[in-house]
Write a structure and sequence with these properties.
- By secondary structure, this protein is an all-alpha fold.
- Helices cover about 85% and strands about 0% of the residues.
- The chain contains 16 helices and no strands.
- Helix 14 packs across helix 15.
- The protein starts with a helix and ends with a helix.
């Protein structure tokens, strides 16, 4: 695997830390900012909304730019966003900073995925994406627990300062390791972009992405309050449990990429979504005991992010077939779909917490993931039907 993938993973590490560290700091920030837990959950939802806007819109607007210049620009925006969050004088200012950072996130993972697949042979595409996303999963292993610990000891503002420094280091790493002569995609016409937005096969996969990921975040956004209030852990233990969760995510991400390469995205996603739904349902019962809660969370991590490589490579595969002139935009829209799922999941989970309590989030999340499973099987059936029609026509 080329060194450029290391640079992408390094940037993904910084971005992953700032995205998910909020989960561990949610109770601390809610108390300090004098807002409710569901209101603090908006820091997750609105960040994801920034990603959802940034991925397709800014990816399209920068399609004529040199790929390396785009990477360095979005990492610069990422650093600025976190510095604004560090100095935010109010909850509203913090929300603006999160949206700003989310815009950078969206563009990075959009072009990063297509760059990653372009750096390796076609059959290694899912594994290349998995390596890039390993930066994000390593962030869950080390960055998020460490950021949570820093926030609990020195205040949540110190976490954002630390993350901005990580972003600067990642920017330097990208400047050194990412080649300047990356393959430049042809500028995408507006008509081609609209074709991506209206193509039913791509829209179906975007729905699978948003629903499957959203189901996870209905519960994951409120994991720290569940651990505090239901499982009985004190705040200092949350960082350690997030470390356990992150290790599992790292393993699951690589496993999901290899599974997508070996079995194809549909079979891999079927296994992962079925397992994820089962684990979320199990959490509804195991969260009340500290030991069974941690064991369930350990398995949950392996399934929660294992679907990312398969979903992303599936979109690229379909875009190459149906909208070959807008593969970057199609990839960007899938990043948007991930974050639409996060935004709706976190928002929906907040409403569930406010109206019905914390422990209704896991089983509702399981039902939502099952919907994604059904849509995945339907998409696979359409793939087989299309193949059969092509054979008949030939």
């Amino acid at each position: 695997m080329p060194l450029a993938l290391i640079a992408l993973a390094l940037s993904a590490f910084a971005i992953g830390t700032t995205e998910f560290v909020i989960v561990g700091l949610l109770p601390t920030m809610a108390q300090d900012l004098n807002v409710s837990i569901p209101s603090a959950g908006l820091l997750v939802s609105l960040y994801a909304l920034g990603v959802a806007i940034g991925a397709p819109v800014l990816t399209a607007l920068t399609s004529r730019w040199n790929r390396k210049h785009v990477l360095l620009s979005v990492m610069g925006l990422f650093v600025i966003g976190n510095l604004v969050a560090w100095q935010a004088p109010s909850f509203e200012a913090l929300i603006i900073a999160r949206i700003l950072t989310g815009l950078a996130h969206g563009v990075f993972f959009s072009i990063g995925s297509t760059i990653a697949t372009g750096l390796v042979p076609k059959e290694k595409g899912a594994s290349a994406i998995a390596i890039m996303f390993t930066g994000l999963t390593v962030a869950l292993v080390t960055g998020v627990p460490l950021g949570t610990y820093i926030g609990q000891i020195f205040g949540w503002e110190a976490t954002f300062l630390t993350v901005s420094i990580l972003g600067l280091l990642a920017m330097i790493g990208s400047a050194i390791l990412v080649p300047n002569n990356l393959k430049q995609a042809k500028p995408t016409k507006i008509t081609a972009q609209l074709k991506v937005l209206t193509h039913p096969r791509l829209l179906l996969v975007y729905a699978i992405t948003a629903i499957g990921y959203g189901g996870t975040f209905i519960a994951f956004t409120y994991l720290a309050p569940i651990l505090n209030e239901v499982s009985g852990f004190d705040s200092s233990s949350v960082a350690l449990i997030l470390l356990v969760y992150g290790v599992s995510v790292a393993i699951g991400n690589i496993w999901g990429g290899k599974m997508a390469d070996n079995l194809g995205p549909i079979k891999a996603l079927t296994i992962i979504f079925a397992g994820l739904a089962g684990i979320l349902l199990m959490l509804s019962y195991t969260a009340y005991n500290p030991i069974t809660a941690v064991l369930t969370i350990l398995v949950w991590g392996a399934f929660a992010f294992g679907n990312v490589p398969g979903l992303q490579v599936y979109v690229v595969k379909l875009a190459e077939k149906h909208t070959p002139n807008a593969v970057d935009v199609a990839s960007g829209l899938n990043i948007a779909a991930f974050n639409v799922g996060i935004a709706i999941g976190a928002w929906g989970g907040g409403n569930i917490v406010a109206e019905h309590g914390l422990m209704n989030t896991p089983w509702v999340g399981a039902i939502v993931v099952l919907v994604a499973l059904v849509l995945t099987r339907y998409s696979g059936a359409l793939d087989r039907k299309g193949t059969s029609l092509n054979l008949v026509n030939n």
